[in-house]
Design a protein that fits this description.
By secondary structure, this protein is an alpha+beta fold. Among the domains are: 115 residues, membrane protein fhac (Ubiquitin-like (UB roll), Roll); 82 residues, Ubiquitin-like (UB roll); 99 residues, Roll (Ubiquitin-like (UB roll)), CATH 3.10.20. Helices cover 20% and strands 37% of the residues. It is built from 14 helices and 31 strands. A hairpin with a 6-residue loop joins strand 5 and strand 6. The relative contact order is 0.05.
Length: 789
């Protein structure tokens, strides 16, 4: 073993040294250019107001912008191009180009003019030394001009009233402000949208103009906003919505040359389904372009969004026709091309390990339009076998485990309730979801397990950023049965001892009937690197209804004494489980972002239960928690297995460390590393995590309970770095976590980072001896898809 270690070291060290030499050499960008070329190392813009410095730099042409001093884009580009002749990693060195320098100078000058420095002048200078160039831009901005007078020339009186009644909600223009082209462009866009919201179907941006008088020498200017009328007319025409035609194509191929329309017009809408696969009301429910209302492009956008969200149309197209027999009316024509209605997916797995082999086969059928109303129906059947190998037998001679499951779900794009609710699709698509599943498992001569679950869930949007989810029915029936002949057989004593905890879970027999509710704020902003607060709060309650039913019939039981109230011959669970997830996202410019998060929850059993069901407990660690610990290996509290015997630790080895309460906090800084990395962006992260789980229910070791006065002593702290490979719709994540403080120890020994820096090997050897079969790891690797939070 020692010889192998020496050999391994001899191989690794030269390899690492060679890579470092290659990378450092590659970072010498002048090595890879022609003698007549120079690499731009620095660009300076002098004599600018600080608030304009960063934005002015963005007008320097990209091909001559120097790479960041600590960046690795150029070095990696040169390294990969030299070794593999690929340009898919990093960016080439910026080469000096006098033409681009002049374009940049001119653009910076125009930028200053647009910010109110009408007399600004910018000069450029280039110095080159040993093929390394420095570019200097010197700005003489002159005096800033301010808006002395703001006037308006809007000929259409009705349009003028609309603008003045609404402009306080959006305008950036005011007398006394420093002139800014961006403010004028923003005003133009807002006026355009405002008029499109008030029936002005033909209104266009060129009708909106600004005149700027900057001839004075006192740094003041006059701005006039002009909205012209159409040529030859005294006002703009407002249009109302007339008859709407909604047409569904006969197939996914599109529309035929001639169409026979449905002769029936109901509430101003003619619905023609050439495919015969759609009912009228479920589709028209999400058409917000209504007859008799003024044209409003917000309603058009809303209709586009919701019809696509039904997930049954591959193309939606809205056009407008001006009827010859009607003035100031537009008739919408909504053309819908359906997508493939049904799909079927077959999947297989071949799990195997030492001495066993098996297979799992599943078939999933999906119908996106089950009842001709965009209802998504999904049905899955899954089965598997596991067999022992050896002793000259064939694979299926000794099948020891069988698993079988059925599951079905139905999602309906509206709220299915026994009372009237208004259409709720303006902020997001509401859904009613029904789910049923059944799982059966049998392990030969050991146990059988049956689990039945069903639920009803309502999801709806209060606003675009406020989402509610309510599950009024969540029912679970679990019936596990150990085969006592096997368990009580003395020959199986070792097997039962080593798997005592798992066997206890498999033998679980209970019922859960409860409800859930969650509220989420700003989930739609998570993909945007902005500044905002995210919040998600949830509540899971079970058992109260069943307790009320049993008491109604005069049944009184005492769970603390082992006397449980039963329904259908099984005890029912009773608990409450609230949880919150609060985050603050701070944009630091570009894609740089700082995130602070706290996630906390508690589960309390009461009434007919003395403990929380296994699946409702909390855990710490993992790729989205305290990342220096593997999931479910942290806590609870100051729990340490060194107080247990070797046999006890063997029984508990590999079992989840869970709790009834948890608190986790995270700080993370995110930044961009490479613009181009094998067709995607490579981003980095630095993080600091802290948290733990604790017990609440009675009968647990004292060190596992939450104690506020000893909170810091019970908190685990870890740090680390991460990589995010950002493809358009996916983020592949790799995080490396390092333990700083481990609460399973006491006093200064909790700061295990000192052990890592001074004597990690001796510490790990001692831990592995006193905690066997558990082992200690200072570093934890985490892989994931998507951001951690």
């Amino acid at each position: 073993m020692k010889a192998y270690s020496i050999y391994k070291t001899k191989i690794q060290f030269p390899a690492i040294l060679l890579f470092i030499i290659l990378f450092v050499t590659a970072c010498s960008s002048t090595k890879y250019i022609q003698d007549y070329q120079s690499v731009v190392k620095e660009v300076h813009i002098d004599s600018l107001p600080p608030k304009l410095q960063e934005e002015a730099f963005s007008y320097v042409q990209k091909d001559i912008r120097p790479a960041p001093k600590l960046g690795i884009n150029v070095g990696l580009y040169n390294l990969f191009y030299t070794l593999f002749k690929t340009k898919s990693v990093g960016n080439p060195a910026p080469l000096l180009d006098s033409t681009l320098v002049e374009i940049s100078r001119n653009q910076i000058e125009k930028f200053l003019n647009s910010k109110g420095y009408f007399n600004a002048k910018v000069s450029s200078d280039i110095t080159v030394k040993r093929q390394r160039a420095k570019v200097y831009f010197k700005a003489n901005p002159g005096p800033a001009f301010f808006v002395k007078k703001l006037s308006y020339d809007i000929e259409d009186a009705k349009m003028k009233d609309i603008y003045f009644n609404s402009k306080q909600k959006f305008t950036h223009l005011r007398e006394g402000m420093q002139y800014d082209d961006d403010s004028l462009a923003y005003e133009r866009d807002q006026i355009y949208e405002l008029m499109k919201h008030h029936g002005y179907f033909d209104f266009a941006r060129p009708y909106i103009k600004f005149t700027v008088d900057s001839n004075s020498n006192n740094g003041q200017t006059k701005v006039m906003l002009i909205v012209d009328n159409p040529e030859g007319k005294t006002e703009h025409a407002q249009f109302k919505i007339g008859e709407t035609n909604v047409i569904v194509a006969p197939s996914t191929e599109g529309f035929p040359d001639s169409i026979r329309f449905n002769p029936k017009i109901i509430r101003g809408t003619r619905f023609t389904d050439l495919s015969g696969h759609f009912r009228r009301n479920p589709i028209l429910r999400y058409n917000f372009i209504r007859q008799g209302e003024l044209y409003d492009n917000k309603n058009e956008t809303l209709t586009y969004d919701r019809l696509y969200e039904l997930n049954v149309f591959k193309n939606v197209k809205i056009d407008y026709i001006k009827p010859a027999d009607s003035v100031n009316t537009v008739n919408p024509v909504i053309r819908l091309i359906p997508q493939k209605r049904m799909s079927n997916r077959v999947e297989g797995e071949l799990p195997f390990n030492a001495g066993t082999v098996g297979f799992t086969l599943s078939n999933t059928y999906i119908n996106n339009n089950m009842f001709r109303g965009a209802e998504r129906f999904e049905f899955q059947i899954k089965g598997g076998l596991q067999s022992r190998l050896g002793q000259g037998k064939s694979v299926f001679n000794d099948v020891y485990q069988r698993d079988f499951s059925l599951s079905t779900s139905l999602a309906i794009p509206r709220l299915m309730v026994p009372f009237h609710v208004p259409v709720m699709g303006k902020n997001g698509m509401p859904f009613t979801s029904f789910g049923i599943s059944y799982v059966y498992g049998l392990q030969k001569d050991v146990f059988s397990r049956k689990v039945f679950q069903t639920s009803i869930t309502y999801d709806w949007y209060e606003t675009k950023f406020k989402v509610h989810s309510f599950t009024p029915l969540n029912f679970e029936y679990r019936l596990g049965s150990l085969l006592l002949d096997t368990v009580n057989n003395p020959d199986n004593a070792a097997l039962v001892k080593d798997n005592a905890y798992n066997l206890m879970l498999l033998n679980r027999k209970d019922i859960t009937l409860g409800m859930k509710y969650s509220y989420t704020l700003n989930q739609a902003k998570l993909l945007i690197p902005g500044t905002f607060v995210y919040f998600r709060g949830s509540m899971d309650i079970a058992g109260n209804m069943l307790q009320g039913i049993t008491r109604l019939f005069g049944s009184v039981h005492h769970a603390s004494e082992g006397d449980y109230s039963e329904i259908l011959g099984l005890p029912y669970n009773q608990y409450v489980r609230p949880e919150i997830d609060l985050r603050w996202y701070k944009n630091l410019g570009g894609v740089r972002q700082f995130v602070a998060r706290i996630n906390a929850g508690i589960a309390v059993a009461y009434g007919n239960s003395i403990a929380i069901p296994f699946e409702k407990k909390f855990f710490a660690g993992g790729s989205s928690g305290v990342r220096a610990w593997q999931a479910r290996t942290l806590g609870p509290g100051n729990y340490n297995r060194d107080v247990l015997t070797q046999d006890q630790r063997t029984i508990l080895y590999g079992l989840d460390q869970l709790g009834d309460m948890h608190i986790e906090t995270n700080l993370e800084y995110r930044y961009k590393m490479l613009n181009k990395f094998f067709g995607a962006q490579l981003k980095g992260a630095v993080f600091l995590d802290a948290g733990n789980v604790w017990n609440v229910s009675s009968g647990q070791p004292a060190e596992t309970y939450f104690k506020f006065q000893k909170l810091f002593d019970q908190i685990a702290i870890g740090t680390g770095v991460g990589l995010r490979y950002d493809v358009d719709y996916f983020v592949f994540r790799f995080d490396i976590g390092l333990k700083l403080k481990d609460p399973q120890f006491s006093g200064s020994d909790q700061w295990v980072i000192a052990k890592y820096l001074s004597g990690a090997k001796d510490f790990k050897n001692e831990y592995n001896t006193t905690h066997a079969p558990d082992t200690y790891r200072f570093v934890q690797y985490n892989f994931g898809i998507g951001m951690p939070f």
